[in-house]
Specification:
The complex is a heterodimer. The longest helix of chain A is centred in the last third of the chain and has 16 residues, at 176-191. Chain A is α/β, with parallel strands linked by helices. Chain A has 11 helices and 10 strands. Chain A has one domain (9-252): 3-Layer(aba) Sandwich (Rossmann fold). The termini of chain A are far apart. In chain B, helix 9 (184-206) packs across helix 10 and helix 10 (211-224) packs parallel to helix 12 (259-282). Chain B has one domain: ABC transporter involved in vitamin B12 uptake, BtuC (Orthogonal Bundle), CATH 1.10.3470. Chain B is globular and about 55 Å long. Chain B is mostly helical. Classes of the chains: A alpha/beta, B mainly alpha.
Chain lengths: 259, 286
């Protein structure tokens, strides 16, 4: 194991895109300390998903001075890094039950052929119970609600027992109950020293769910504690003309009862 | 048709076609799950130029144009080449997978049609039976073909079981599979090879135009019934075997009906019957 001083995730000078010489994100450098919980925010098309996929080697054209997971390269750290894609990019009509999907979280450590033992299977059941879906283990995934599907994906990452969780829009299109319980699960992970990085689109709830933020608009506009990152000036820079409205919306929200 | 009319030859044909139907249904389940249904169509159509080239090569080499293993090898080679071309062209991004599929399918089939006109001008190829190759005929199936099909089905089943986990996770969530370090390209190649082998094995019976129906339609019907990947694969294999048998019997009963067309109609009927189950299971849209 690497020492506690090693950052959970470190990226320096990363540029990436889907076409040669047309990077979507440019010159990205940031470091996530262990046990931190960070939102990756920015307008539509800012390159949020591209950035996390690029770090995970899922984007065709990536250049970087350094991408380090838990102080080493991805190939070495793979079973300690959990990736949760956007729910919408998955075929939910796939013939499988919830437990089948959660067991996939065991594959990074099992590889292609090693059989899952009773102990690992039990991990999958516990993970499903942690997100409140113990009773739906044998339910067809297509019959689950959007919020339940999202929780199945989180359970898959929990079963993997990773140290770094990278999530793409975990709170998109889910019910309020799921949002609350999911945020609770993620905070529980952080409290146990796990590191969370999540693409997040709803500016109003960044402060509620996260400690830190990275504001992205093809390049990094601001990074640090949420309050420092989400200022009128930085949001205006990232969101352009619409920023005024959004910033006011945010200000209103935070002076409101929930803030 | 009475039981007495089913002679040894018909029984052999029936067994062979059912083996092919089961094989196609099982492979088709994974092809459909990976959203590669049209690659089955591409592979079928793209076998035509390979078969024609193999015929011409066989004549030129003095092996005879109708050397079975050479025809299969030729068909498999161009089918595999075409199946590889689709993702390669799709990566250009300005075309997209659907455009790439259409371009490759039409290009290979056009080439095949031209080569086949040369074959039919050839003295040994005049009774070559393009119609048979296009729409299928199970008439000429012998013992050797049945044994070869049994071997292919056994090997395929073993590979599907060994690689079940990899094939499943790649089909369900490709990005997760990549991030988990699974060899996505290798698994896709495996599935493509199994698909091409199935298509080429079935092209004599089902015909190169309609062989896609036997790969995809029973699998689609099984998907309508729900379940998990293992049970869906088993049901698709059973539906494939049953509809293939129904096709053979129908084409024997009604003179002049191509086997592939009859099999396709039987599979389509099975699909239509399962549609209401799919609607029931989904309930509300996800």
């Amino acid at each position: 194991m690497s020492g506690g001083a090693t950052p959970a995730l470190e990226t320096r000078g990363l540029s990436a895109g889907y076409l040669r010489d047309e990077p979507v994100v440019r010159d990205i450098s940031f470091t996530l300390a262990r046990g931190s919980m960070t939102a990756l925010i920015g307008p539509n098309g800012a390159g949020k998903s591209t950035l996390i996929k690029a770090m995970l080697g899922l984007v065709p054209f990536v250049t970087a001075e350094r991408i380090a997971f838990l102080g080493t390269d991805l190939a070495t750290a793979r079973d300690r890094v959990a990736y949760i894609p956007q729910r919408s990019q998955i075929d939910w009509n796939f013939p499988a039950c919830a437990l089948d999907i959660v067991e996939m979280g065991l594959y990074p450590s099992l590889g292609l052929f090693r059989r899952a033992g009773r102990e690992t299977r039990e991990k999958a059941r516990v993970a499903l119970a942690t997100v409140g879906l113990a009773d739906s283990a044998r339910a067809q995934i297509g019959a689950l609600s959007g919020g339940q599907q999202q929780r199945v994906l989180v359970a898959r990452a929990l079963a993997q027992d990773a140290e770094l969780f990278i999530l793409d829009e975990p709170f998109a299109n889910i019910d309020a109950f799921t949002e609350t319980s999911l945020a609770e699960v993620l905070r529980g992970l952080r409290d146990r020293g796990r590191t969370i990085l999540a693409v997040h689109h709803d500016l109003r709830s960044v402060r509620t769910h996260f400690d830190d933020a990275i504001l992205l608009s093809h390049t990094i506009v601001a990074q640090g504690a949420v309050a420092q990152v989400m200022t009128d000036a930085t949001l205006a820079q990232a969101y352009g003309f619409h920023a005024e409205g959004r910033a006011e919306d945010r200000a209103e929200h935070h002076s409101g009862p929930r803030a | 048709m009475t039981a007495g009319a089913i002679g040894a030859n018909t029984l052999g044909v029936l067994v062979g076609c059912m083996l092919f139907g089961a094989l196609a249904g099982a492979v088709g389940t994974f092809v459909l799950a990976r959203r590669r249904a049209l690659v089955a169509d591409v592979a079928g159509h793209a076998a035509l130029p390979g078969v024609a080239l193999a015929f011409l090569a066989g004549e030129a080499l003095g092996l005879g144009g109708r050397t079975p293993w050479l025809l299969l090898l030729g068909g498999a080679t161009t089918a595999l080449l075409a199946a590889w071309c689709v993702p390669a062209l799709s990566r250009l991004r300005r075309i997209g997978p659907d455009g790439a599929t259409a371009v490759v399918l039409a290009g290979f089939f056009g080439l095949g049609a031209v080569l086949f006109s040369i074959v039919q001008g050839h003295p040994a190829g005049s009774q070559g039976g393009l119609r048979t190759l296009l729409f299928g005929s199970a008439a000429a199936m012998g013992r050797a073909e049945v044994v070869a099909l049994l071997a292919l089905a056994t090997v395929t089943l073993a590979l599907l079981i060994v690689f079940l986990r990899g094939l499943t996770v790649v089909a369900f969530d490709e990005d997760f599979a990549r991030s988990a370090g699974l060899p996505v390209r290798g698994l896709d190649l495996l599935l493509t090879v199994l698909l091409v082998a199935t298509v080429v094995a079935g092209m004599q019976m089902a015909g190169i135009v309609l062989v896609v129906a036997m790969v995809i339609t029973p699998a689609a019907a099984a998907r309508n019934l729900g379940g998990r990947i293992g049970s869906v694969t088993a049901i698709a294999a059973i539906l494939g075997a049953v509809t293939a048998a129904a096709g053979v019997i129908a084409s024997r009963a009604v003179a002049g009906v191509p086997t592939g067309a009859a099999m396709t109609l039987a599979a389509t009927a099975a699909f239509l019957i399962t549609v209401p189950f799919g609607r029931l299971a989904r309930g509300s849209p996800a």
